[in-house]
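Instructor's aside before we start: the two examples that follow are unrelated to each other. I chose them only because their records fit on one page, so don't look for a connection. First example below.
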Amino acid sequence: MISCGPAAPGKDRRPIEHGDSPCGQLMDRYLLVMTACVDPSRGEYRLNRADPTIRLEDYKTALRFWLNLPDKRIRNILFIENSNYPLDSLESIAKQENPLEKNVEFISLDCNWYPPGGHYGYAELRMLDLGLQQSRLRKSTTHMIKVSGRFKFPSLTRLLDHLPAEFDAVADARAWLTLGKRLERPYVTTQIILFAHDFYRSYLQDCYHELELGGEESHMEVIYYRKLAELSASNKVIFRFPCNVSPVGFPAHRDRSYTHPSQVMINGIRAIVRQVLPNWWI
């Protein structure tokens, strides 16, 4: 365990690994990174879905989904948790319910903290940085697919099928309210976002420090958009998914699931717009 907030430091805990080691001469392309906070009670930001018991079940459901996903590109999974919650039940699932023998690594941290008045995105970005720095699986892969750990993404395979052979970052941007009105602060969604490891390490690592400054850019989604926009001229950055990759599960800030009829309708509109108006990022 690593203490990275104001709490007293604990003893170091090495990552727990299950499955065959991928270490060898050949590098795997993707590392699926599940970010998690089972117990958000220490954070100032109030969440609707805050019960650790319920959230743990969400993570179990999502982990089972990824373990059973037949896509051979998703064979390395890194689970990072930032509230120092016991992960025994998840480790058991990785051991006993892993029919495709995927490589699964668990990293437990104690860093569910962010500046007073700030957003929980700070804690997520910091967790991501610290977890990646410890990860064994990161060293044997070239790219990461960062997902919010409570969600399933059934369309991920389709997205990967449509991506170019080489990229530095792939995000799904939101920049327009209507055809004639642009958002004051464009952003990228971060439930799922992809990076080359080298690109992330060079340009995005430690960017959570910018959230300490407060001001208008108080959310990780806005910070990421600005940074990627600045880097897009000299790097291979994609700002629009070629297809919808909608999450399945319950968001933390409301009780209505992502499969609610109203959300399904919005997703359908977005799917049509991607085809007929690809430069209208809604």
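Example two begins here.
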Amino acid sequence: MTDLDRLQGAWTVVSMEMEGNSMTPPGGARIVIEGERFQSLGMGAVYAGKVRVNARTRPRQFDLEFNEGPERGNTSLGIYELDGDAWKICLTVTGKLRPREFKAPPGSGLAVEQLLRGTVPLAPADTAPLGDPAPEIEGEWKMTACIANGVTVPESMVRTGRRVAHDGQTTSWFGKQVILEARYGLDRSVSPWNIDYLLKDGRRQQGICRLAADGALEIAFSSPGSPRPSDFKTAGVTFTAWRRV
């Protein structure tokens, strides 16, 4: 049996790191492999194509050749470890060179993901009201700054960041990697505004946001299940700044 045979089926993303920053995978994020075809699902768009595996190298290598979705015509170069129902990968997101080890340091353009075999059931959806969808923060935005847990994200990565919001739904990316997909709503009765995200796995994420006089959008949010941040530079939260496209 080859490694490609062992990889058949659905794999759920349970942890993710990009350029030194740990991130919460979107709920339902998974890779499905059928024959030599792969689909990356639950990442804001459907990414699909051909997977090539080389188990003779050390570390073992794989390529994802995209022929459907936003990355059509591109190829991600990666390495992997396969241990029963656990699959660990390191691959290019904005980088061009195949990784040599399972690390994604700042400036590398790499991501490290841990996956488990099977589809993890989503939690029951939180039905509490989210608030106003705020049409003034809808549309497409380009990231201008990001500080994750006190660490400034490198400019090379920030340049790939974008955010699209419409009708109470928002998705954010670094390059081809989705970093947030959620419903959202604002509470305008406080200053700064409170913003709540309802993630696809049913968890709620709390934050604050503001629109500057020049139209820039700033958002700070805590990890799912943590208290709402008290200001935009509180330790342990993620701060992002955006300019409208």
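The chain is about 5% helix and 50% strand.
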